[in-house]
Amino acid sequence: MNGADSLCDTLLANDVDVCFANPGTSEMHFVAALDKKPQMRCILGLFEGVVTGAADGYARMADKPAATLLHLGPGLANGLANIHNARRANTPMVNIVGDHAAYHLQYDAPLTSDIESLARPMSDWVHRIQSAADVSPAAAAAIQASRSGPGGIATLILPADAAWTEAPATIQRATDPELAPVQDDALRAAGAALRNGRKTVILLSGKALRGEALDTASRIAVKTGARLMAQQSNGRVERGAGRVMIDRVPFSVDLALKTFEDTEQLILVGAKTPVAFFAYPGKPGVLVPAACDIIPLTGPDNDVAQALQALAEAVGADHTVAPLTSQRTATQLPSGALNAAAIIQAIGVLSPENAIICDESVSSGRDSFKSTFGAAPHDFLQITGGAIGIGIPLATGAAVACPDRKVILMQADGSGMYTLQALWTQAREQLDVVTIIFANRSYAILHNELKMVGAGEPGRNARRMLDLDNPTFDWVHMAKASGVEAARATDAESFIDVLRSALARKGPFLIEAVI
Amino acid sequence: MNGADSLCDTLLANDVDVCFANPGTSEMHFVAALDKKPQMRCILGLFEGVVTGAADGYARMADKPAATLLHLGPGLANGLANIHNARRANTPMVNIVGDHAAYHLQYDAPLTSDIESLARPMSDWVHRIQSAADVSPAAAAAIQASRSGPGGIATLILPADAAWTEAPATIQRATDPELAPVQDDALRAAGAALRNGRKTVILLSGKALRGEALDTASRIAVKTGARLMAQQSNGRVERGAGRVMIDRVPFSVDLALKTFEDTEQLILVGAKTPVAFFAYPGKPGVLVPAACDIIPLTGPDNDVAQALQALAEAVGADHTVAPLTSQRTATQLPSGALNAAAIIQAIGVLSPENAIICDESVSSGRDSFKSTFGAAPHDFLQITGGAIGIGIPLATGAAVACPDRKVILMQADGSGMYTLQALWTQAREQLDVVTIIFANRSYAILHNELKMVGAGEPGRNARRMLDLDNPTFDWVHMAKASGVEAARATDAESFIDVLRSALARKGPFLIEAVI
């Protein structure tokens, strides 16, 4: 076996059996190795941002890493924006980046670049394989790094000669990750805070937004009178009717300040102190009042579920306390003009049980949480790092992980343009994704931001940079180009009709919702 | 005036008057500044790889830098692959990357990343603006850096607060670049080599492949019996009927070794010693024989035209010596089956005088030089750094720089998928580009490379990673989605018909040539 075989075997031995790929010449030995192993599912993306965004969506739902296969520095660079998002979601991911043979780097051939420098800003762990013998230990270490803490980005650089050289047959195994329990003093501090009568918010993120942990958090809030909130961006939230009702920190600085204006204590559970997404002249960066006490119960690196359970015991929030759950309220369909609110309202009513709702609707979907509290129970995946172009790949990966569940993507048109190549992957893999394009034909968020700058009415240059019209992009044609069936809707009734039929069938479908 | 106004004024004062842009919130003050200056042409790309690739094509033809406007680390990352190509072409480019306000970085808001680490591998010069007062000096330094030597990548990080803070009214000017003349000992060595009777290749790149410099090089070759060659990849070559006939180093290692097998001396003029694009087991990295003397006349940083003129004088290659030029031989149109050779043959016959031919045809176009020696005189722009996804943006930028010339793009389908968003920019700006998609529905180059690995017939996993079928992507639908007229051709006759009519009209047109 050569180094490439050793890498493939190490991935499989450690339960990494999906590889989102866009290979090049320097990865050909690895392609040949993958070709010998039908138990590895290889999924081609026609651009690397598709590959990494899909790996993110996959891992958020599968709770284990996928591998990505990328071609040297530029291939990695193309995938970085969605690696950035994945890192902000604490997604486990193992990136395999092919490079020139080690002895070839001295020649500075055209595709040569400093891969480590590119990888580090978006990776938690980076390693360049030193030899064929280093392949299996390095791959096991990468998998372990990707699984450590809440999950992280491991980037493994594979020189071509390490791939093609004879390697030892020993395959390394990553050890199972261990999450540290909550620290006693943090537990005591949070418990005391919940008993002192001050106005308290418990801010959750990561695994605290799922299943039993979220129930426990809600019981704590109900028992102590604290308010439960989710971070503005989270990798995955389990929500909908019958599940814990939890709102998230608003994106708007003014709304977020209002949300926290009377908050005296903030208990962090896998979350960070909320800060403004962007700085604005004269507005604060931290969104809680200066006098608010910040009490970290546990960061994302610890066992969040255990920490919440311990806190529940400390405050007496046992199973006799019922969590605050959402009711099945989303039953009224919209009518008349089609706009973002109507689309989201319709999704709230029609999305089936156990759907996966992905959200890159940006400005259009800011208020979507309200309309979907009462939707059928679902997982909610959103853009986490602000790097647009995640939506279509994210939905693609989630559908690979969960072939029996319907994936619904709320996709802004401007952001969707970034990685529209993922539609082709959905067609090829026949993934069960309904993509809903919020076609407002502009970077609406930026029009709003420009207003806030006080620039007045936008002139020609500003409009040329913020509007997506002249020509408008035709998403129905684009979907058909990719082998995905599609339709356009321009009022609520036609949107509902199309959405109903898209949800009733299997396989990818795109709706261009003109708003 | 604020820092953003100061930046805009500094660009304009230094003749940088085209800005390829994909802005975000942190760049809104700069957008507002650009909006006040109609003399700045702002061109939106719906993905950053479009923005940077277009800036490359523009600068190769305009011989001056464009600005790019990119949104934080992920926006820069999306543009890096084509910045990599531009750097390998020695293209002048000024990248303006917005970042958070300096005081906001401490909060590690979701879009925060280490922009410098991302920028450095693909930049010749990187600077983070320190204050509003630093904006104009820094921008002038960036422009100067982009123009120094043969041209380079300057990346300027603009914190939002430096943009929105009041700035001094003084606008800095970059000094004109100066190219050093050839060094005496290098000139003597090259002159001596050309007189010693040994088999000599003069290898050219950069400005040596244009106009007077190229004529001079050819006269030297004719006079001394040396062979003239161009580097494998070059930013721009002036060629075609009536111009100097010069072949380039083949991509294939075996063919390149054959080309140089009897070469005893290699004189470098703005070029590098030729090396293999990739390493292969058992094959050499350097493509000239070990015994071949390498004689650098001048690197790309020096005045290449002056160096060639001095060498011509040294060897007596004056204007009585005629350069070896191509004849107008491309007159025979193909017929029958459509394949890459037929497409290129037709382009050779039909491309109009003074066209700009861009090439990202990858494996399909490897032999295209032969068929176009005798085409009408044209500029030839190619992918230089091996980072695929340059073609459609490159053609877009070239058309912006030269609105009165026809741009013809030879585009491989797999590579074209990377940055197909550039078609929309062509439609919006009504650019005169004919895009010819070589639709072989596979990463054909990789099939070939896989064969060379000795992996035998590709199995399911390999085919799933190397084939672009099931479904085939429909480029005609895609072009129409973007507002670009398009047609499909499946035999030589229909291809010729469509190409003729596309060349006869103004504005963007796409031909899907199924091969």
TrEMBL record, chains A, B:
UniProt domain Thiamine pyrophosphate enzyme TPP-binding: residue ranges: 384-512
Gene3D superfamilies, A to Z: 3.40.50.970
Keywords from the UniProt entry: Thiamine pyrophosphate
InterPro entries xref list: THDP-binding, Thiamin_PyroP_enz_TPP-bd_dom, TPP_enz, TPP_enzyme_TPP-bd
MF terms (GO), sorted A to Z: acetolactate synthase activity; flavin adenine dinucleotide binding; thiamine pyrophosphate binding
Stored Pfam families: TPP_enzyme_C (PF02775), TPP_enzyme_N (PF02776)
Domain annotation Thiamine pyrophosphate enzyme N-terminal TPP-binding: ranges: 1-106
Any Gene Ontology biological process: small molecule metabolic process
CDD domains named in the record: TPP_BFDC, TPP_PYR_POX_like
UniProt similarity note: Belongs to the TPP enzyme family.
PANTHER family: ACETOLACTATE SYNTHASE LARGE SUBUNIT ILVX-RELATED, THIAMINE PYROPHOSPHATE ENZYMES
Protein name: Acetolactate synthase large subunit
Species of origin: Pollutimonas subterranea
